[in-house]
Amino acid sequence: MTQAKTTDFITAYCDGGSRGNPGPSGYGVSIEDAAGKPIADLSEFLGVKTNNFAEYSGLLAALEYALRHGHTQLRVVADSELMVKQMKGQYQVKSPDLRPLWEEAKRRAAKLERFEIHHVLRGKNKRADALANQAMDHGTGKTVREPSGGSPPSSSGGPLPRIAGSTPAKRASNDDKPRTLKGFVKNGVVHLLEGELPENCFVRVTPE
User: Fold this and answer.
1) Which has the closest alpha carbon to 191: 23, 54, 36, 56?
2) I want to staple 27 with a disulfide (CB 3.0 to 4.6 A). Which of 58, 110, 115, 203 is the partner?
3) Together in a domain, 69 and 26
4) What pairing do the DSSP bridges indicate for beta strands 114-119 and 183-186?
Protein backbone atom coordinates (compact mmCIF):
# COMPACT_ATOMS: atom_id res chain seq x y z
CA MET A 1 0.00 0.00 0.00
CA THR A 2 1.36 3.44 -0.99
CA GLN A 3 1.46 5.89 1.88
CA ALA A 4 -0.02 9.35 1.35
CA LYS A 5 2.52 12.11 0.81
CA THR A 6 3.26 14.45 3.68
CA THR A 7 4.32 17.95 2.69
CA ASP A 8 5.57 19.17 6.09
CA PHE A 9 9.30 19.13 6.78
CA ILE A 10 10.63 16.34 8.94
CA THR A 11 14.06 16.69 10.55
CA ALA A 12 16.56 13.84 10.80
CA TYR A 13 19.45 14.17 13.23
CA CYS A 14 22.17 11.86 11.87
CA ASP A 15 25.42 10.57 13.29
CA GLY A 16 27.86 7.77 12.63
CA GLY A 17 30.93 6.54 14.42
CA SER A 18 33.77 4.05 14.29
CA ARG A 19 35.83 2.78 17.21
CA GLY A 20 39.24 2.58 15.61
CA ASN A 21 38.55 4.24 12.23
CA PRO A 22 38.31 1.74 10.68
CA GLY A 23 36.82 -0.36 13.44
CA PRO A 24 33.44 -1.48 14.78
CA SER A 25 31.03 1.14 13.49
CA GLY A 26 27.39 2.12 13.50
CA TYR A 27 24.98 4.95 12.80
CA GLY A 28 22.12 6.58 14.62
CA VAL A 29 19.27 8.73 13.31
CA SER A 30 16.61 10.50 15.36
CA ILE A 31 13.69 11.81 13.30
CA GLU A 32 11.19 14.50 14.36
CA ASP A 33 8.04 15.79 12.71
CA ALA A 34 7.38 19.43 11.88
CA ALA A 35 6.29 20.10 15.46
CA GLY A 36 9.50 18.66 16.90
CA LYS A 37 7.84 15.45 18.09
CA PRO A 38 10.04 12.31 17.82
CA ILE A 39 8.58 9.89 15.28
CA ALA A 40 11.37 7.34 14.70
CA ASP A 41 14.81 6.21 15.81
CA LEU A 42 17.02 4.37 13.31
CA SER A 43 20.30 2.63 14.13
CA GLU A 44 22.43 -0.18 12.79
CA PHE A 45 25.75 -1.88 13.44
CA LEU A 46 27.82 -1.83 10.24
CA GLY A 47 30.80 -4.05 11.06
CA VAL A 48 34.34 -2.77 10.57
CA LYS A 49 34.04 0.53 8.69
CA THR A 50 35.30 4.12 8.85
CA ASN A 51 33.68 7.12 10.53
CA ASN A 52 32.78 8.67 7.19
CA PHE A 53 31.21 5.43 5.91
CA ALA A 54 29.06 5.34 9.05
CA GLU A 55 28.05 9.00 8.65
CA TYR A 56 26.88 8.41 5.08
CA SER A 57 25.05 5.24 6.13
CA GLY A 58 23.05 7.30 8.61
CA LEU A 59 22.21 9.85 5.92
CA LEU A 60 21.07 7.09 3.55
CA ALA A 61 18.87 5.61 6.27
CA ALA A 62 17.22 9.00 6.86
CA LEU A 63 16.58 9.45 3.14
CA GLU A 64 15.15 5.95 2.83
CA TYR A 65 12.83 6.56 5.77
CA ALA A 66 11.50 9.77 4.23
CA LEU A 67 10.87 8.15 0.85
CA ARG A 68 9.24 5.03 2.28
CA HIS A 69 6.89 6.96 4.55
CA GLY A 70 5.78 9.54 2.01
CA HIS A 71 7.64 12.53 3.43
CA THR A 72 8.52 14.89 0.58
CA GLN A 73 10.54 17.45 2.55
CA LEU A 74 13.53 16.41 4.63
CA ARG A 75 15.92 18.46 6.70
CA VAL A 76 19.08 16.61 7.79
CA VAL A 77 21.22 17.80 10.71
CA ALA A 78 24.65 16.19 11.06
CA ASP A 79 27.92 16.88 12.83
CA SER A 80 30.06 15.58 9.95
CA GLU A 81 31.32 18.73 8.26
CA LEU A 82 32.89 16.65 5.48
CA MET A 83 29.63 14.91 4.56
CA VAL A 84 27.58 18.10 4.75
CA LYS A 85 29.96 20.03 2.50
CA GLN A 86 30.20 17.14 0.05
CA MET A 87 26.42 16.95 -0.19
CA LYS A 88 26.29 20.72 -0.79
CA GLY A 89 28.95 20.48 -3.49
CA GLN A 90 31.48 22.50 -1.51
CA TYR A 91 33.92 19.56 -1.21
CA GLN A 92 34.80 16.98 -3.83
CA VAL A 93 34.29 13.29 -3.05
CA LYS A 94 37.71 11.80 -3.70
CA SER A 95 37.40 8.61 -1.63
CA PRO A 96 36.48 5.56 -3.79
CA ASP A 97 34.74 4.06 -0.74
CA LEU A 98 32.54 7.11 -0.15
CA ARG A 99 31.71 8.07 -3.71
CA PRO A 100 29.08 5.31 -4.25
CA LEU A 101 27.41 6.33 -0.97
CA TRP A 102 27.46 10.00 -1.99
CA GLU A 103 25.99 9.17 -5.40
CA GLU A 104 23.19 7.12 -3.83
CA ALA A 105 22.46 9.88 -1.31
CA LYS A 106 22.22 12.45 -4.12
CA ARG A 107 19.93 10.12 -6.08
CA ARG A 108 17.57 9.66 -3.14
CA ALA A 109 17.61 13.35 -2.24
CA ALA A 110 16.63 14.22 -5.82
CA LYS A 111 13.39 12.24 -5.37
CA LEU A 112 12.25 14.62 -2.63
CA GLU A 113 10.48 17.89 -3.29
CA ARG A 114 12.83 19.65 -0.88
CA PHE A 115 16.04 18.52 0.79
CA GLU A 116 18.24 20.47 3.18
CA ILE A 117 21.36 19.46 5.09
CA HIS A 118 22.99 21.45 7.88
CA HIS A 119 26.11 21.07 10.01
CA VAL A 120 26.02 21.34 13.80
CA LEU A 121 28.55 20.69 16.53
CA ARG A 122 28.45 17.27 18.18
CA GLY A 123 26.99 18.73 21.37
CA LYS A 124 23.77 19.58 19.50
CA ASN A 125 23.46 16.07 18.07
CA LYS A 126 23.50 14.07 21.28
CA ARG A 127 20.62 11.67 20.68
CA ALA A 128 21.86 10.57 17.25
CA ASP A 129 25.33 10.12 18.76
CA ALA A 130 23.85 8.00 21.57
CA LEU A 131 21.96 5.85 19.04
CA ALA A 132 25.14 5.31 17.00
CA ASN A 133 27.01 4.23 20.13
CA GLN A 134 24.10 1.97 21.09
CA ALA A 135 24.42 0.26 17.71
CA MET A 136 28.16 -0.23 18.20
CA ASP A 137 27.56 -1.60 21.70
CA HIS A 138 25.03 -4.08 20.32
CA GLY A 139 27.42 -5.20 17.61
CA THR A 140 30.34 -5.71 19.97
CA GLY A 141 28.31 -7.42 22.70
CA LYS A 142 28.52 -4.64 25.28
CA THR A 143 25.82 -3.74 27.78
CA VAL A 144 23.52 -1.23 26.12
CA ARG A 145 22.17 1.88 27.78
CA GLU A 146 18.96 3.47 26.54
CA PRO A 147 19.65 6.89 24.96
CA SER A 148 18.35 9.79 27.02
CA GLY A 149 14.93 11.07 26.16
CA GLY A 150 13.24 7.72 25.66
CA SER A 151 12.98 5.71 22.48
CA PRO A 152 10.21 5.93 19.88
CA PRO A 153 9.37 2.67 18.11
CA SER A 154 12.23 1.76 15.80
CA SER A 155 11.45 1.58 12.11
CA SER A 156 14.37 -0.72 11.47
CA GLY A 157 12.13 -3.73 12.03
CA GLY A 158 13.60 -5.31 15.15
CA PRO A 159 16.62 -5.57 17.41
CA LEU A 160 19.91 -4.18 16.23
CA PRO A 161 22.17 -6.76 14.60
CA ARG A 162 25.19 -8.25 16.35
CA ILE A 163 28.42 -9.55 14.92
CA ALA A 164 27.64 -12.88 13.28
CA GLY A 165 28.60 -15.76 15.53
CA SER A 166 29.69 -13.62 18.48
CA THR A 167 29.03 -15.02 21.94
CA PRO A 168 29.90 -13.63 25.37
CA ALA A 169 33.08 -15.07 26.82
CA LYS A 170 32.67 -17.58 29.66
CA ARG A 171 33.84 -16.73 33.17
CA ALA A 172 37.47 -17.64 33.70
CA SER A 173 38.40 -20.41 36.13
CA ASN A 174 41.77 -21.42 37.61
CA ASP A 175 42.33 -24.17 35.02
CA ASP A 176 41.26 -22.10 31.99
CA LYS A 177 43.79 -22.06 29.19
CA PRO A 178 44.88 -18.73 27.68
CA ARG A 179 42.66 -17.61 24.83
CA THR A 180 43.22 -15.19 21.98
CA LEU A 181 40.57 -12.50 21.50
CA LYS A 182 40.73 -9.92 18.72
CA GLY A 183 40.24 -6.23 19.40
CA PHE A 184 42.02 -2.91 19.65
CA VAL A 185 43.23 -0.44 22.26
CA LYS A 186 42.13 3.20 22.25
CA ASN A 187 42.99 5.72 24.97
CA GLY A 188 44.18 2.88 27.18
CA VAL A 189 40.89 0.94 26.94
CA VAL A 190 40.63 -2.53 25.41
CA HIS A 191 37.77 -2.89 22.90
CA LEU A 192 36.90 -6.40 21.69
CA LEU A 193 35.54 -7.06 18.22
CA GLU A 194 33.67 -10.09 19.55
CA GLY A 195 32.59 -11.31 22.97
CA GLU A 196 33.41 -9.82 26.38
CA LEU A 197 36.38 -9.94 28.71
CA PRO A 198 35.89 -12.38 31.61
CA GLU A 199 36.04 -10.90 35.10
CA ASN A 200 39.26 -11.10 37.13
CA CYS A 201 41.43 -11.88 34.13
CA PHE A 202 44.83 -10.70 32.94
CA VAL A 203 45.18 -9.30 29.42
CA ARG A 204 48.28 -9.30 27.26
CA VAL A 205 48.04 -7.03 24.20
CA THR A 206 49.95 -8.32 21.18
CA PRO A 207 50.18 -6.18 18.01
CA GLU A 208 49.34 -7.97 14.77
Assistant:
1) 23
2) 58
3) yes
4) unpaired
